Predict the structure of Sel1 repeat family protein.
Amino acid sequence: MGKGTLKDEKQAFYWCQKSAKQGHIDAQYSLGIMFYRGKGTLKDDIKSFFWSQKSAEQGHMNAQYNLAHMYELGTGVSIDYEQAFYWYQKSAEQDNSAAQCGLALMYYSGVGALKNYKKAAYWTRKSYENGYEEAKKLWEELELWKYE
């Protein structure tokens, strides 16, 4: 946004919202981010959740990750660890490295899923192999190599 022209967040929000209402998956994802950050509009966690969910349900892996995170923290929705796990898994299966790390933490802690160190190790390794630097720290701190 703003390439070749002056950056206008309100105008970007207007067009993004118009596209999102027509079902465009990327626009729905972007609108969720705009509401979350308050870019071009007022910050609104409930609307951020709504648009993130619309995009996630259509398969957008980054929206799925954001939705998982929102369920985990209770941002715009009540905390629901099972839903967080579900959406982390959907995104992780599409190779979202941050979601893979989130999924690993849920398996390790037993929050939202049954505790499973082997699966925690698997998803942490996959996350790191996909470039998520935090996963390497997690791998070492939790000594996950023991569970491979």
Remarks:
- DSSP finds eight helices and no strands in the chain.
- The chain has a mean pLDDT of 96.
- The helical segments are 9-21, 25-37, 45-57, 61-73, 81-92, 97-109, 117-129, 133-141.
- The CA atoms of residues 24 and 85 lie 25 Å apart.
